[in-house]
Write a structure and sequence with these properties.
34% of the residues lie in helices and 19% in strands. By secondary structure, the chain is of the alpha+beta class. Among the domains are: 119 residues, Uridine Diphospho-n-acetylenolpyruvylglucosamine Reductase, domain 3, CATH 3.30.465; 92 residues, 2-Layer Sandwich (Alpha-Beta Plaits), CATH 3.30.70; 87 residues, Alpha-Beta Plaits (2-Layer Sandwich), CATH 3.30.70. Strands 12, 13, 14, 15, 16, 17, 18 and 19 form an 8-stranded antiparallel β-sheet that branches. A 5-stranded antiparallel β-sheet has the order 5-6-10-8-9. The protein has a 4-stranded mixed β-sheet with strand order 1-2-4-3. The longest helix has 16 residues. It is globular, with a radius of gyration of 23 Å. It comes from Acetobacter garciniae. Its cofactor is FAD. Keywords: FAD, Flavoprotein.
Length: 490
Amino acid sequence: MYETALPAPLHDALLALLGPAGFLTQATDTSPYCTDWRALYHGRCAAVLRPATTEECAKAVALCHAHGVPMVPQGGNTSMVGGATPDGSGRAVVVSTTRMRQVIAIEHADLTMTVEAGVTLKAAQDAAAAEGLLFPLSISSEGSADIGGILSTNAGGNNTVRYGNARELALGLQAVLPDGTVLDLMRRLRKDNTGYALRQLLIGAEGTLGIITRAIIQLQPAPRSRETALCAVADAKAALDLFAAFRREDPSAIQAFEFMSGVSMGLVNTLIEGASLPLAQPAPAYALVELASPRAGNSLRELMEDVLGHALETGLVSDAVLAESEAQRLDLWKLREEHAEAQKRAGASVKNDVSVPLPAIPTLIAQATAACEALIPGIRVAPFGHIGDGNIHFNLVQPEGADPEAFLAQDHAIMDTVAAIVRKLDGSFSAEHGVGQLKTYLMPSWRGGAELTTMHRIKNAIDPANLMNPGKIFPPDRGTSPRKLPPTHP
């Protein structure tokens, strides 16, 4: 006998279609697909479907649709908000795209790459680099996050300030709709005014409208010169002023501009092996600046030295170090990329992925810091993130020696405290991580009225039976609440 709640006819049809490698039903095989990356949510599924082609995916979805079985699309399973985790009912199947791993084509004339959804971001970056090109999207989970999931969540990352989010990098898509219909939008056109831009509905929909199976993504010429610097600054206002100084000189040269608080950097230097602050002494805050150009030469070094030289003279920057090699550049980026891991090792943490207009960032950090410290004395306020595009990960780490579960029990109070300040500043409660199932309760107050009603109408038109990733983005029915289980670790 098989270990699944699926009807026997559906089980047999899916097994015949996908084969043993594409149809997992034993709990030991399916359990890794039922827990999110942060271990906040623990669900169950009737089976994991692993189609190897768009055609297999479409046939499998059509079978599930005919039997009324909910489907949870899943890529690399790196969601920060439980967006790819099934609920606890065990009724749904997880539809994983990880077997669709082909880089189909790279076109130099129009700088595009055609890939299947299961290609990881790192694999796409490497394929582009082998052709002397750049896939510019960069996130910390790029080794496991895949293209389908990145587009479904409209991922952002370190280089958004220059190249935009995933939405700006996608020209064409292919997707399987909730009834198994294949929607083919694979057009490498930058100009195409022929009705609604349907691909934009799928990008950022978090798998609630369909499963992306292929994509055409835009590439860039690979940088031939790059300069990276870590700067010590007094606060977020100084970091923003430094960003403005670089932007005045040459906005096209800025590839990344990241902010790190002194508290968060202190955790990295204390808890991450091999991390070392290459400055004379710790600072209240830091900015990581990266300039890049497809042109060879030393113009970027001159630009970096000119801007930083003036900033040091005026006191805007108290200290700075420039990478003199690729190894040193990677060391500087390690100081930025290890913030999430350092906070995890420091204990339980509550993550707020928020965005506000650039001028409001200093106010956000100051007011949210004061409010959270008043809410929980001893809390460690550890913001960092993509200050160049207004996205701050305003993370809060438990007080030293506090009980992790007791701290996490206050997560909604902490999130609401930060969100109230973000709202006053005309920001968003989710900048790049999405809504998933963690933040559905915020949707009515933030996106209610005509906006949420229109989203419901689109969802109902494409997926009237609510079979595609149910429980994500949209708030639960009145009288119910999101199913959140205690995490197994902070």
